[in-house]
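Technical appendix A lists one of the benchmark inputs used to test multi-chain prediction within the project. The record comprises two sequence entries:
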Amino acid sequence: MPIPLPTINLIDISPEMTLGVFGLVILLLDLFLRREGKGYLAVLSLIGVGGAFYASLRLWGSSHYSLSQSIVVDNLSLFFNAIFLLGTAMVILMSVSYIRREGINLGEYYSLLLFSTLGMLIISSGNDLIILFLGLELVSIPLYILSGFARTNLKSNEAALKYLLLGVFATAFLLYGIALIYGSTGTIKLPLIAKMLADTAISSNPLLFIGMGLLIIGFGFKVALVPFHMWTPDVYEGAPTSVTAFMSVGVKAAGFAALLRILLTALDKLQFSWVSILVVLAILTMTVGNVIALAQTNIKRMLAYSSIAHAGYILVGLVAGSRLGVSSILFYLVVYALMNLGAFAVVILVGRKGDQSLHINDYAGLGYRYPLMGAAMSVFLLSLAGIPPTAGFVGKFYIFSAAVKEGFIKLAIIGVLNSALSLFYYLRVMVIMYMREPEKKEVSPIHFSPGLVIALLIAVLGILYLGILPSRVIDLAADAIGTFISG
Amino acid sequence: MNPYGGFPLLSILVFLPLVGALLILLLNKKRVEQIRVVALVTSLVVFVLSLPLFFNFDSSTHQLQWMEKKPWIPHYGISYFIGIDGISLLLVLLTTFISVLAILSSWKAITERVKGYMMFMLLLETGMLGVFVAQDLFLFYIFWEAMLIPMYFLIGVWGGPRKIYAAVKFFLYTMVGSLLMLVAILSLYHIGGGVTFDLYELLKVPLTGHQQLWLFLGFFLAFAIKIPMFPFHTWLPDAHVEAPTAGSVILAGVLLKMGVYGFLRFCLPLFPDASIEFMPIIAVLAIIGIIYGALVSMVQPDLKRLVAFSSVSHLGFCMLGIFAFNILGMEGGILQMVNHGLSTGALFLLVGMIYERRHTRMIADFGGLSKVLPLFAAFFGIVTLSSIGLPGLNGFVGEFLILVGSFLSRPLYAILATTGVVLAAVYMLWMFQRVMYGELDKPENKVLKDLSVREIVVIVPIIALIFFIGVFPRPFLRRMDASVQHLVLQMEAKKSKEPLYVEGMKERIREFFHKEEISAD
């Protein structure tokens, strides 16, 4: 008797497949390349990312389920794909000279980056809880390795171990939450969960709420919400800077993608419940992130806490939840990717072998020695703080607008005050760059590798463009949720 | 109205300094003379281009003139909407005028990193002009915030010994107020249905007393910090003292006016009920500002700090005039803004000149200067008298109109404010006497050179205007008439016929206690 095979439309997963193939090919080719030839692997991985991007572009406009309804291919997933792939491309550009400088120029680096991105792509298309879980694991495991990539650096090893232990811990919470939700609704497919919750007998099941809580905790760890953020500063500081850049942008975006799908599709009926939890988390995250960042003198740690605070702002958008709220999150993630990656690119440029020169005082006088780089860093800092006419302002404007519209005015006020608070530590770096003289006279010149320069250019131009003419991307973000939410 | 058939004069005005700044970006930073000339020429061109705005202004209408409106972010209803009317006309001219003088005054004063300095001065001019012409709330907010960055750098890089402290304080203080204004703007937008940020559309949105109250407060904080009103004024002395001369000139001459302008353009038309309710509180704060500013000025040993606190005092007058809610008071307030810009700007310029010579601003280090610097003393004297409000000079016209207008509204306030006029005479004349007259006992003062040609060129235009406005203010007042009249009528019309919110609350509280008494019997 013929076995009925499920119909798999490979086009639907073409972005994922592209990345997977390229990742494997790079692993293989790495065996045959000598040390000097590793640069080709970077080019190859960029081609892979480009290919996945093209594949996603071709799918734009679709809106259907695939693979027995375990994945959904709609504009939202493709928009997220674009964010992830853009981020990865910029990280690869930033990494080339960095890993050479740090002596960790191995082909596996690029492969692991690609596999992690593959996990992100899986998350963005996920339509059931197990796929989302799978994607999240695929994102995290290469990163456990990548954070410890600088094998001889003690801090890097510490970072890897901390990330692994806490990540696994988070995964356990996540799995338990998934199990409880499955237990109470009988299904793992997001739309079906939503359907089941229409029945009040099921939706008042306490196990469901516990499961939802555990889910939020699990994702909270991954996205570094307060009070699940304790690992972030140490891991971000210890990991190689390019990996930190990747983590701060990609993993957060992926975590929010998953959270978005679950909370707004599956657990939509429970909104009254998770909104209040998220409001508290948002306030905590923004405030704690900004307050502790004030005290930091290591620039990587400062950026780590700043990224925690930004996760808080994104949560405000999630709390708003409406069309406006979700499209504001999408826009903000694009902007956040650009400005964060740009800032980390500058950190890589200013740093020295062995991850030195990370103290903010090492930035003294940088605005005059390297005026263009100083100007670029100023643009990133102003954008992170949310000052017009940068994209960061438009992003925050969008998010707070969504919050105000849904009636969360006090939350918007807290968010806005936090923005003012964050200004202090962003301005401090600018003050040091332009208004302080360098202490030590002996500073080796900065080596501007082409990859880093390209990444910087993309970031600066992107931020200025999105700050002055954000209309196209805003419309794209609004389109992306066209089929997603029903109002 | 667009007398040149669609010629975008205002956009050119606003963005020409930006173009100039980009030009300077391309110049070699060592060619300092070239940079200075390009900056000066740019600001001169902007000034000359702004003159047609004045001379071809149609005084018969309150409608926006030289209007330009293009959609910018249609998804949000944000448009690039600019224009001027009687209220902003004089402020725009003040901006272009003062910018030229500020750049000219920095010729010898700034010798390091001239390129960055001139770029920021021009960027600042773009921001300031943008604030005065924007008619879309989002656009206004962008220019309002964007202006902070150049000012922050100007103070922080080219400033005095405590420049970083002053710059960061200025930035953070202003930013907090502005951010709360952002929340108010967003709320207003959403109450209006989330359709547009166009001011004239938003004016049509009906607001309850409760909504008006909170929205007014949101805007109030931002503008009050900018003016600065007591008690939000503490950033001003530090910023003024530590800023380079031209920075102080622009700060006092133009930036402070934006707060008052904000009230006129947004708070009064959008929230008339709330404005009327808050009027007593604001008037009291204004009067406190007038008297407190004057008293503190009196005891300052540093010339620049003295002038800084005098700004608090003068702008208290402007606010009092505006919140008299009649034509006399408002026209007085707007004119006085221009006057203050001229006279205080001139004061800072003159203080800067003496600082360039002696590298000190302490009054105690001077004395008898009129013997050595007769021309300087003459100009200083004229500006001092203008600041006091001597009849015949510009300050008198503005102050008189304000006091009369305020008297018509609440006589008590006018009476209290008039003491401020007396106090102004005290601190200014005493300062002048200590610096210019008396014994020329310090040897360093004996060898000072009088004003150079460049310095004369910087001061004389202001002196000329001081006399002109003092004797013949009609051309300036005439152009404001239609718009101010419209504003007053608009407020009357939009005012709700219901009892005021605060009054209503007081009634309820009174009733509540009354009931308690009755039941206790």
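Chain B touches chain A at residues 72-76, 113, 138, 141-142, 145-146, 148-149, 152-153, 156-157, 163-164, 167-168, 171-172, 175-176, 179-180, 182-183, 186-187, 189-190, 194 (CB under 8 Å). Chain B has a mean pLDDT of 87. Comparable benchmark entries are summarised in Table A2.
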